[in-house]
């Protein structure tokens, strides 16, 4: 319960977090608050599709409404496919009729915390009809752009982004809907300074209050596991120098830089080190060897404890992403005491401390990244030093208690300014 003013009795007071799908960051934010016994607050999460049981989850739709929600999601995807965007970006409209705002307004809650609300969970207009103070954590760029979820990040994508007249009409119409509808109280939270700077530059959101709060993780799960034990469990040679790459959408998302990763691996054969490459994630097609370097595809990993063992079994993690709103695999690896080498771009700059917890390489210099990988795998003392620094950084910056306390301070600030 959020504290009331001295002469005011609040009764039961809630924070309701709204998240439609398997959003790892949103669930962790919710759990960090829910599990922090020192916070006098009740947090529940309203989901549109229930993939797994979660503490304090509120699954709204009955069978009929579930079918309607699925139909709206299907219809929106059909419209997006018809528009045929050529920019390799994910686009959302969020324009179909929606009445979830009525449920949110009728609940006995003080604050609404929005996360990723696309697939027609909340329409643009319905967000503007929420009559409770809103905290909105931006997990991508859709809230401050037109229909796309990420800014363009390469010249090739910019050159391919010659929109048709119909695409421009739809994009500008959605932007106008956002401008006209969102006159209610919305406080923006960004997981990285990179995203916060983008929001400040945007025409739509630059006047909103903005705060940077990183995504949390459970440092009691993502923790260092003895390297030889982890390798024994995974069947990895103890003498190998293990390099890790992971991405949820694998090779299908150009933001993740899987094409760059392949170039980097090809250059490592010059090192004469006994290297083994581990990769995890969905939709990854990879040969078993590249220039005689063995590649082992672990597939999609759903168990965070198993994932922690994979991080711990690795000498370092390589993240060749072109764009990350935050970079959860980097923070997870750091929490397990694993150094990270990444390009000096977007949200990754908030996670990796150059030459202290890993290396940040000028984008997109694959030659330099391969050299830094070789430097690190040949220096076990440096790996240990970076790993220790990384674990310390994770505990100080991203643990559940640290992040939930930051959110609670924000909730108090918003509550007192609105009631």
Report on the structure:
The protein has about 425 residues and is α/β, with parallel strands linked by helices. Helix content is about 40%, strand content about 15%. It has helices at about 25-35, 65-85, 100-105, 125-130, 155-160, 165-180, 195-200, 225-235, 260-265, 305-315, 330-335, 365-375, 380-395, 400-419, and strands at about 15-20, 40-45, 55-60, 110-115, 135, 185-190, 210, 240-245, 275-280, 290, 295, 315-320, 340-345, 360. It has a 7-stranded parallel sheet. It has a 7-stranded mixed sheet with strand order 10-11-9-8-12-13-14, sandwiched between helices. Strand 6, helix 7 and strand 7 form a beta-alpha-beta unit. Helix 1 crosses helix 14 and helix 8 (about 225-235) crosses helix 10. The longest helix is centred in the first third of the chain and has 21 residues, at about 65-85. The two termini are about 15 Å apart.
Give the beta-strand count. Answer: 14
Low-confidence stretches: 1-13
Indicate the overall shape. globular
The fraction of residues assigned to DSSP E strands is 15-25%
Q: Oligomeric status of the shown chains?
A: single chain
How does the major sheet shape up?
A: 7 strands, parallel
How many helix segments? 14
Measured distance between first and last alpha carbons: 14 Å
Strand order of the largest sheet: 3-2-1-4-5-6-7
Rg, alpha carbons: 22 Å
Which structural class best describes the helix and strand composition? alpha/beta
Element-level helix/strand string: EHEEHHEHEHHEHEHEHEEEHEHEEHHH
Mean of residue pLDDT values: 88
Residues in helix, %: 25-40%
């Amino acid at each position: 319960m959020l504290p009331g003013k001295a002469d005011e009795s609040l009764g039961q007071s809630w924070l309701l977090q709204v998240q439609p799908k398997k959003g790892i960051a949103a669930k962790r934010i919710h759990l960090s608050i829910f599990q922090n016994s020192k916070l006098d607050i009740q947090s529940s999460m309203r989901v549109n599709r229930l993939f797994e049981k979660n503490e304090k989850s509120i699954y709204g739709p009955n069978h009929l409404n579930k079918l309607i929600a699925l139909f709206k999601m299907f219809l929106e995807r059909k419209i997006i496919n018809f528009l045929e965007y050529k920019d390799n970006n994910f686009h959302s409209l969020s324009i179909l009729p929606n009445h979830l705002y009525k449920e949110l307004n009728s609940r006995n809650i003080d604050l609404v915390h929005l996360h990723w609300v696309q697939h027609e969970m909340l329409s643009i207009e319905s967000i503007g009809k929420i009559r409770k103070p809103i905290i909105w954590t931006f997990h991508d760029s859709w809230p401050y752009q037109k229909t796309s979820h990420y800014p363009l990040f390469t010249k090739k994508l910019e050159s391919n982004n010659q929109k048709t007249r119909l695409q421009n009409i739809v994009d500008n119409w959605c932007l106008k809907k956002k401008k006209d509808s969102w006159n209610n109280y919305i406080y923006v939270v960004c997981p990285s300074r990179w995203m916060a700077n983008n929001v400040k530059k945007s025409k739509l959101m630059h006047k909103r209050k903005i705060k940077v709060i990183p995504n949390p993780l459970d440092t009691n799960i993502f923790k260092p596991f003895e390297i030889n034990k982890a390798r024994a469990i995974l069947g990895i040679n103890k003498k190998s120098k293990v390099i890790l790459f992971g991405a949820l959408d694998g090779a299908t998302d150009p933001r993740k830089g899987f094409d760059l990763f392949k170039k980097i691996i090809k250059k490592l054969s010059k090192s004469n080190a006994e290297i083994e490459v581990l990769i995890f994630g969905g939709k990854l097609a990879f040969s078993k060897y590249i220039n005689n370097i063995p590649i082992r595809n672990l597939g999609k990993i759903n168990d965070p404890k198993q994932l922690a063992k994979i991080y711990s079994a690795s000498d370092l993690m390589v993240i060749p992403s072109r764009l990350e709103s935050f970079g959860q695999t980097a923070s997870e690896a750091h929490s397990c005491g694993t150094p990270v080498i990444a390009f000096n771009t977007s949200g990754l700059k908030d996670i990796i401390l150059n030459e202290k917890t890993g290396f940040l390489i000028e984008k997109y210099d694959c030659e330099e990244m391969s050299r830094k990988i070789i430097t690190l795998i040949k220096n076990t003392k440096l790996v240990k030093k970076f790993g220790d620094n990384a674990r310390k950084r994770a505990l100080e910056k991203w643990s559940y208690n640290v992040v939930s306390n930051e959110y609670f301070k924000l909730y108090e600030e918003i509550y007192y300014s609105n009631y």
